[in-house]
Specification:
The structure is a homodimer of 251-residue chains. Chain A is an alpha/beta fold and 251 residues long. Chain A is 42% helix and 14% strand. Chain A has helices at residues 16-29, 44-48, 60-64, 70-73, 91-97, 107-112, 132-140, 152-156, 158-171, 191-204, 217-221, 229-232, 237-250; strands spanning 3-7, 34-38, 75-76, 82-85, 121-125, 143-149, 177-184. In chain A, strand 3 (75-76) and strand 4 (82-85) form a beta hairpin. The A-B interface holds A 10-14, 17, 42-44, 47-48, 89, 92, 95-96, 99, 127-131, 149, 151-153, 156-157, 160, 190-192, 217, 220-221, 223-224 and B 10-14, 17, 42-44, 47-48, 89, 92, 95-96, 99, 127-131, 149, 151-153, 156-157, 160, 190-192, 217, 220-221, 223-224. The structure holds adenosine-5'-triphosphate (2 copies) and magnesium ion (MG) (2 copies). The site of one magnesium ion has 4 residues of chain B, from helix 1.
């Protein structure tokens, strides 16, 4: 049974892409077939794995607008068990283009239906907003992984995100639940990180992954080499923390 | 003559709000009247200055949808020369609500026209996207300040942002230009920071602010106290770097 997870948070720069790419790679390293879907017009997850747009190659944009089937957009990576459906900048226009389409919130779900049976996990990277693309991801998913940077502004946005998840669950996708909150860019030397982490664990108890992602420069260097951290520097604390998160997810 | 500047970058978490709030405060500290406009439905610039939504008090949402005049939404802050037009979560819906409105891209510009003569500077904080709200900011502005985090993904998005600025200049606002790129969260110990900074200076030469904003925990602590960094800890490197940036802007 394929589990479909999306990585979402409207707050920008909290580690959505870094989590989607490195968690997908860590799960693939455990020989579980994973499909990473890049739903962000910034295309960071695609380029973070070294995938460049190629003329004639369909992307998620062509899939959502009905011009190509999902299987035609799937690309392979250096990890045998990891495949990717890359994004394209055109995704930014999909919102307006599909504004009057029938069941526009279900476009991604329909594209995935019946097309992902070969994968144990589908992981969807979302853009920093709660608009059309992210709603599509929430409608298509079984559960949401919420990366939370241990900072004040990031904590502020959490209630809005949980509100949107409840709205989508009631209106479109009754099975949608929160897989877990993962604390990212945690800096042990910094009081604010500890304060935010304590508050989140007090509020959300076992909904918070035990694995904490530390601030680690290897995680921000890896994308410029087109590799996930486990291929760029597996001994780094960043790579190790995502391997630990994958073990928690698979348990 | 009032100068209208927006702080924009679709990449999330690069320091847009931190730059908008602290630059506005630094300019106000130099006794130049400043209006800070929060155009992000996350409302971070508003809450970063301690402004909470109050029933009956109009926000930028009411102004853009024609339910209130700009002057009715202006709030004061601890700094005499700094006023704020706060955001509200409803801004996220303005995009769809105004999808068929006439001259929808000019809503903010029309709201500011004739209403900001008392201010020397208007500084607009943008959400992490290139959609309706950010386009409104670009149409309303004389110039754009681009915060750029010294990281790989942030550099990747720059060409897309410059392309959007050119499109808005050609189609809606011929006076729009780039005020400058400001390097943010610069970490002197980290190679990647230096590499990105070198590449940006090579490419953009004098379009890059000489002031560089260092990674400084006081900048991320200040918003939880509802204060800009110059009121929270003026001796911090973060506060000092924004005072230096303001001096460059005013020169
Ligand atoms: N744990 C970490 N340690 C150090 N750097 C990190 C870490 N996680 C992410 N980064 C870096 O921080 C920046 C923001 O992370 P990322 O792009 O993954 O966030 P995002 O939530 O996907 O952003 P957006 O909202 O733009 O989609 C990137 O440059 C990334 O390389
Ligand atoms: N120079 C800095 N040093 C340390 N922390 C910083 C610095 N600049 C910003 N921050 C912190 O990093 C996070 C991201 O910054 P900020 O929210 O200003 O970015 P943004 O571009 O406005 O994000 P969004 O895309 O969500 O609007 C915040 O928690 C902020 O407090
Ligand atoms: Mg991302
Ligand atoms: Mg912001």
């Amino acid at each position: 049974m394929t589990r479909i997870l999306c990585v979402a948070n409207q707050k920008g720069g909290v580690g959505k892409t870094t989590t989607a790419v490195n968690l997908a790679a860590a799960v693939a390293a455990a020989e579980r077939p994973v499909l990473l879907v890049d739903l962000d017009p910034q295309c960071n997850a695609s380029s973070g794995l070294g995938l460049r747009p190629e003329p004639g190659q369909p992307t998620l944009y062509e899939v959502l607008t009905g011009q190509a089937a999902l299987v035609d957009a799937v690309r392979s990576t250096e990890l045998q068990a990891l495949s990717v459906v890359p994004a394209s900048r055109d995704l930014a226009a999909a919102d307006v283009e599909l504004v009057s389409a029938d069941r526009r919130e279900f476009r991604l779900r329909q594209a995935l239906d019946g097309a992902v049976a070969d994968y144990e996990y589908v992981i969807i990277d979302c853009p920093p907003s709660l608009s059309f693309l992210t709603v599509n991801a929430l409608v298509a998913s079984d559960a949401v992984i919420i990366p939370l940077q241990c900072e004040y502004y990031a904590l502020e946005g959490l209630s809005q995100l949980l509100h949107t998840i409840r709205t989508v669950r009631r209106g479109f996708n009754p099975r949608l639940r929160v897989e877990g909150i993962v604390l990212t860019m945690f800096d042990t030397r910094n009081n604010l990180s500890h304060q935010v982490a304590e508050e989140v664990r007090r509020h959300f108890k076992d909904k918070v992954f035990r694995s904490v992602i530390p601030r680690n420069v290897r995680l921000s260097e890896a994308p410029s080499h087109g590799k996930p951290a486990i291929l760029y520097d597996i001994r780094s604390t960043g790579a190790q923390s995502y391997l630990s998160m994958a073990r928690e997810l698979l348990a």
